[in-house]
Amino acid sequence: MLSKRYCLILNKLREQQTCLTGHCSFKIDCTKGNDSKPEKESSNVPLNSEETKRRVALTNQVTKEDLQWRKPWKDEFRGYFTVFRNFYSEKSNTELIKFLSSPIDLSPSSIKKWWMKKQKEKQIVMQGYIPERVEVLGCELAAAHFIVFRGGAVKFFQDDKWIKADEDGNYSLPRTYAEGKFLQGIDCSEVDLHYEGLVNFRNLRQVEWLSFNNCKYIDDWCLDTISNIFSETLIYLDLRNCSNITHRGIGALHKIKTLKILYLDSMYKGQELEMTCILLQELLPDLDIRMIDS
């Protein structure tokens, strides 16, 4: 005789097969002997529509769960890589690999280069657009604070003096919005102004005077942006001692229809620059290009 437990296990398997296929090929009778053969049943048991729908729904549910088995490694092992993620950035993973594969250089020149790079990255972040500042001050005063705080100077219409910070960094500018304040001149001489900082000028529509004298980060891309922002108002532009400017950036100035005076220096000498200046003066007949020896 088959044991009762063994019979229950076999009957359980029969029920599972019936659930999955709709029929079962065997049935165990616990009352028969060990040498009795399992009884054959019909291999094609008809299923009603409700049962078929239930099994199809069950199959779809299992398939959907199976599609979710894989998780990205950064989510699956987030706890394990907690310390490593402090030094990992998805945007700069190539730089991290390059850094880890490079030999360690602790020479003074290498440390200085690393420090200057970090300072530049900090400046770029600090020169970003701050909506809260514009909401409190307005576009004109917000740009004025942005320039004067970094060592530049500004001049407003109907005001004869230039506003600049003193040796202690103090300066007199309104701390809230003041009606009727419009910038006429901006002096960025020797200011570490980056391309990302020009976004603070985008809503200035009456600036006539602009100087980038000795701004080492001003390049051709900056001139193209400036040409679009001040295309209808700018009269005076000083680009002396800007080593990153080429004839391509000078050519972009043709979009400033009101430009009358353009200061350049001898570092721009070259056939390409001469041809660019000639074409620029043909497009802007009132433009006076003044080349100053540096």
Radius of gyration: 38 Å
Classify the secondary structure makeup into a structural class.
Answer: alpha/beta
Class of the largest domain, according to the CATH hierarchy? Alpha Beta
Percentage of residues in helical conformation: 40-55%
Strands in their spatial order, largest beta sheet:
2-1-3-4-5-6-7
User: What is the approximate shape?
Assistant: elongated
How far the N terminus sits from the C terminus, by CA atoms, comes to: 112 Å
Describe the main β-sheet briefly: 7 strands, mixed
Using the 3D structure, state the CATH architecture of the largest domain.
Alpha-Beta Horseshoe
- Ranges where pLDDT stays below 50 over 5 or more residues in a row are 32-43
CATH fold node name of the largest domain? Leucine-rich repeat, LRR (right-handed beta-alpha superhelix)
Give the integer mean of the pLDDT values: 80
Please, how many domains? 3
Oligomerization category of the chains in this entry: single chain
Q: Helical element count?
A: 10
Kindly estimate the percentage of residues that lie in beta strands according to DSSP: 5-15%
Order of helices and strands: HHHHHHHEEEEHEHEHE
Please give the number of β-strands. Answer: 7
Q: What's the name of the CATH homologous superfamily of the largest domain?
A: Ribonuclease Inhibitor
Protein name: ATP synthase subunit s-like protein
Organism: Agrilus planipennis
InterPro entries: LRR_dom_sf
Family: Belongs to the ATP synthase subunit s family.
